[in-house]
Amino acid sequence: MKNNIFLMQGNEACVQGAIDAGMRFFAGYPITPSTEIAELSAEKLPKVGGKFIQMEDEIASMGAVIGASLAGLKSMTATSGPGFSLKQENLGFACMAEIPCVIVNVQRGGPSTGLPTSPAQGEVMQSRWGTHGDHPIIVLSPSSVKEAYTFTIKAFNLSEKFRVPVILLMDEIVAHMRERVEIPKKDSIEIINRKKPKSKNYLPYEETEDLIPPMANFGEGYRYHVTGLTHNETGFPSTKPNNAKKQINRLMNKIDIHRKDIIEYDEFQVEDAETIIIAFGSVARSAKSAVKEARNHGEKIGLFRPKTIWPFPEERLQQLARHVKNIIVTEMNKGQLVLEIERIVKNDTQIDFLGKANGEIITPDEILSKIEEVK
């Protein structure tokens, strides 16, 4: 360490970011390759007055996180593979009840137990639609150890600001690699806390102007009801069609109208590109190397990297697609994000796909070969 500069592992940076964002509760169940997040949370949280609890399984740990958040603590859980599947029902409850929380999913090979310590990116669609029904969600995907730190802080800020679960979708490579990370001074970090009620006549699900109702902590003197059922502004169940429509529309719209405050992406050499590579997470590192190598040989290749997977930065992608010959989507699965790309720009340009699901990263050479193949 020198002047807040550390050599950190991705999972370690995630925990440090969570604590710096104000996390004071973690519940989880160890599962590779996310285990270090639980281990380090158990070590670090008591030092800042926080609480760590290892639950009997992933279902219970997601429930504990929801309860802690309702009581006023910024809360997080972490898992991988089948553990993420087990969290889905309670994740849906958090979406419906609008409970802020952060879920870290360090992706590994699947399906089922799959490849426990090998990298993959197979939960792109599960992160969006893993729990049933129409619901809002925010998903961030870091490509470096530094981003594991900064994106975790952003995940907490977005969760608190919009009263929504936020998923940090890492992969095993980012989680276990070690890189130089400069940790900023605490007073320079933007921290967002949930909006609190200002009136004694508190409506926990009021349709405010920004569509994000204030949230009182349990124990602060406000009495309100929390349920996974469709409910009215008081929080008590209501199955009336007009009320259900009003509630679901507000849940979805509170994210849609704030897309500009949520979405982030990176661009590299796209200004004159004839071919654009789309990649996220660790694969974006290989893609950037491939773009540099292709440029050295005079080829006009660029990279578009969504930092926010959901909601996807489709407006910017539409702009880029109108000016390129083709787009190559590359991801460590058999084709997930590519389906979203096809939905957005299939009428504007040719779309090609490079996928891999054998527990190995996609290399720069493989991307370069794909570029040659689709010329």
Show the helix and strand layout:
Blueprint: E1 5-9, H1 10-21, E2 23-28, H2 35-44, E3 51-54, H3 58-70, E4 74-79, H4 82-86, H5 88-97, E5 101-109, E6 115-119, H6 124-129, E7 138-140, H7 145-162, E8 165-171, H8 172-176, E9 178-182, H9 241-256, H10 259-262, E10 265-268, E11 275-278, H11 283-296, E12 301-306, E13 308-310, H12 314-321, E14 326-331, H13 337-345, E15 350-355, H14 364-373
Parallel strand pairs: 2-3, 2-4, 4-5, 5-8, 7-8, 11-12, 11-14, 14-15
Antiparallel strand pairs: 1-9, 5-6, 7-13, 10-12
Helix pairs in contact: 1-2, 1-7, 3-5, 11-14
What can you tell me about this protein's structure?
With 375 residues, this protein is of the alpha/beta class. It contains 14 helices and 15 strands. Helix 13 (337-345) links the parallel strand 14 and strand 15. Helix 1 packs parallel to helix 7 (145-162) and helix 11 (283-296) packs across helix 14.
State the helical fraction: 25-40%
- Residue runs with pLDDT of under 50 for 5 or more positions: none
For the terminal residues, how far apart are their CA atoms? Answer: 47 Å
Going by helix content, strand content and strand pairing, the class is alpha/beta
Average pLDDT across residues? 96
SSE sequence, one letter per element: EHEHEHEHHEEHEHEHEHHEEHEEHEHEH
Determine Rg (CA atoms, Å): 21 Å
> For the report, how would you describe the main beta sheet?
8 strands, mixed
Number of helices: 14
**Judging from the principal axes of the Cα atoms, what is the shape?**
globular
Percent range for β-strand residues: 15-25%
Quaternary assembly: single chain
Please count the beta strands (DSSP E, at least 2 residues each). 15
